[in-house]
Structures are given as C-alpha cells and as structure tokens.
Amino acid sequence: MIFQQNRYKYGHNYIVLVQQQSRQLQTHPWLLALCLLFRLLYFKYKRLVKKNTFYGLVVIALLLAFSSVGQRRNTTLAQVEDDDYSSIFSFGISTSTNSGLLGGFGFRKEIAIRNQAAIKQNHYFALEFANIDDYREVTHIGITGSGYTYGKLNYLMAIRPQYGREIRLFKTSSDGGINVNGIFAVGPTIGLQKPYYVDVVYNNRFVLTEKFDPLRHNYGNIAGSGGFFKGFGDATIVPGANVKAALNFEIDAFNKSNISLEVGFLMDIFSKKIEIMALSDNRSVFTSGYLTIFFGGKK
After folding, report:
1. pLDDT for 76-88, tens place per residue?
2. Helix segments in 68-119, DSSP class H
C-alpha cells in the first residue's frame, strides 16, 4: 500500500511538471520551435558533436538551457519582477566569420543602472581577445604532412576593451525563459601583427624555420607551419578602434547562474593597412559577424 501511494505521489508530481512545461511552451511557441530545432540538429550531427569539443559544448549548453525553460523557479514574484541583481560577470568563447572555429575568448561585466526608467539598462564592459584571418586563407599540406597557409605573411590578433550599454528589449514571464537584450559598445583595438613562420626543407635533409617569403618559398620546399608561438619577439603593435552591435539571448531559468548567447556585428578599424596575405590587397578595416556563448554568475 505504501509503495502504491508513493508511486501515485511521484507520478502525480511528474504529470504536474509536464503540464507546467506545456503551458510555458504554449505561451511562447517560438521556444518550442527552438527546442525542437536544437534537438533535431543534435541527433542529426551527433557524430560531429562528438568529434568537435567546441560545437559539443555549445549544443549541450543550448539543449540544457532550452530544456529548463518550462521549469518553474522556487522564487517569490517580487524577486523575479525586481531583477534582484547588481552585476553579472561572465566568460565567453566565440567564433566569427573572420576566424576559424575557435575565434577567441573574452570577459564581460554588466552593472545594473538603478534609475526610474521603464526599460532596464546595464553598463556594459567587455575585454575580448580574438584572432583575425583573411578570407583568402587556405590550408595546404606540406611535404611532411603538416598543415600550413600558403601566402600568409602575418598573424593578426586583436585585444578589444569595450564599453557600452545593454538595453532590455524583451522580458520573459515569472516562470523563466529567455530575455532578449540589445547591445551597443565601442572601444580601442590593440592590434598585434606577428610574422608567420614556415618550416622549409633544404637539400632534402635540413629543415629551417623561416618567415614566409613568396620569392623563396613554394609548395615544393615547405614542410609545414613553423608554429604559432614563433615570432612574438618580432611582433608590432597597430592601434585602432572597434564598434559592435549585438543581440544577447539570456537564459532566465536560473537564479544566480547566467548563460547567454550573443550574436552580432563587429568592425575593427586600424591606423594602417595590415599585411596578412602576400600578393593581395591589404586592408585597414575588418568587419565580421560573430557568435559568443557566455557562462557566468549574478550578484
């Protein structure tokens, strides 16, 4: 008899939870569509997810976040309505159209503005570290099987301190969900131009690591890349500025934790043209679309 009562109790709680989740998703049908989309993508590309750690982390985080949307938080209505936090600090990993899969990382600090404005606003502070590639870069395989980028003269890395405003565009109900915020930020860019090195084979015996020179190096004598950490002593600093506009999708299903997805457009403007590829037009302005997933906490 006791076993049957417990089974009925747990079964009743499960039914109540499912009903709450169904009502939440009916209130926001676009959340249901996103849930289904991410689940379908995961099952379709689960082999890719297993092989690629970064994509795996992104997909798992999004699945967990969207799966928890329908669960009620055990907080009072006053705590939810007041957005009872003074700041959010988070760490993010990003990818962009001007980089490889892992385009960089950064830190973000949002400080609530305590005023009587109808729309919630935050001070937005960020520090980003990013690698900027040229769209003409193609990876080749050297004579020893190692990969390298033929024609690449320099790496370009950017350090971007930023300040701006974050404005609440859409707020979810007290049951939790996704808050949508608009972000506009500007700041200086510290560009680091570092020579690109390759391993070169001479007389089929000796391998020397040299700066790439299109007049002396070719597909027949390049063994592979000389390594990312080679040449920092020869790096030069190129100052510039940056501006970005973005949308931040903040998961509001957790009390003190913060998970958000930032999608936006960014422009870097440097004080001179940057030589990334040989025998091509150099640029001083680089634009890109980017995506960053942030993990952090509220205070």
Report:
1. 444 444 466 789 9
2. 77-82
